[in-house]
Amino acid sequence: MSINEIAKHLKVSKSTVSLVINGKAEQGRISKALAKRIMDYVEEIGYKPNALAKSLATGKSRTIGLIVENIGDSFFGPIALYIEENLRPYGYQVFYSSTFGEPEIANEILNTMLEKKVEGIILSPTLGQEEQIHYIIKKKTPLVIFDRRVVGLKTNYVGTDNYTASKKAVQHLLDKGYSSIAMVTIDSPQPQMQDRLRGYLEVVEQHGSSPRVLKLPFRTEKIKDSSTVQEFFQQHPDIDALYFSTNYLCVKTLKILNTQFPTSTFGIVAFDDHELFELINPTITCIRQPLEAIAKEIVQTIIRQLKHAEADFVETIIPSELIIRRSSEK
């Protein structure tokens, strides 16, 4: 049944029904008794307004755009589900998409979401998005950046303590008796990756050791063969422990080497947990990011901006946890 049919049945104007359904009865000077009669009938017939029509009538889409690097990976996938779960009680639906780290795709997705009138944006930015993000801030569209910062732009940010947690991971290996610790990371200037690298370098240098860093391509599928990894180990035969800046690099490297390092002689720690890490022998020690807590804080921040457009920007850092398993035990 349409609004027009409801109006005819109740013998009132179509505009009256529209105002009541969209919560504007008082604004339209419609009596409480008439508004109640209309809503009672709407509930009786189970009328559900068309989402597009309701959006046009209220100026609210009740949608939030979530843009991440890869919605299918072990970090962004759970984050997306937690965000969706925490936004639902506020009456918001989530539109999400993946950039795959490509600025052109990221900008296209962002433009499309803004055209679709999403009420807010939750973004894990790629490099090269600074201009678009500056536009969103200037336009006063509610925005929360997470996981990776945008250098030089002040906005809402939610993330973890990449630098401190990285230092904790490397120090843990040193405390366990490993002395020649190498780091495997990605060849990327992303702030969170630079923070993790900086933490590694600081602890190793303070210990008087020589840093050994293997940088693999940002997109691991671009690694054509295993020679780069194998050559790194051949060049540094004294390595007795590895620190991985991401969980997928850990999985990829172990797969390339096609071996399992005995815990009695070789240490492994990865940044970010992975479901495989409790199945691999030895089980893998990791820095576990507080995904649920991060998602909850993202939602609280975007809701605050939606309710108070002039609210001050907030930066929230939620500490990660070192999960000790057999791979770092001598």
TrEMBL record:
SUPFAM superfamilies: lambda repressor-like DNA-binding domains, Periplasmic binding protein-like I. SMART domains: HTH_LACI. Residues 1-58 form the HTH lacI-type domain. Keywords: DNA-binding, Transcription, Transcription regulation. Pfam families: LacI, Peripla_BP_1. GO terms for molecular function: DNA-binding transcription factor activity; transcription cis-regulatory region binding. The keyword Transcription regulation applies. It comes from the Bacteria. This is LacI family transcriptional regulator. It comes from Sphingobacterium alimentarium.
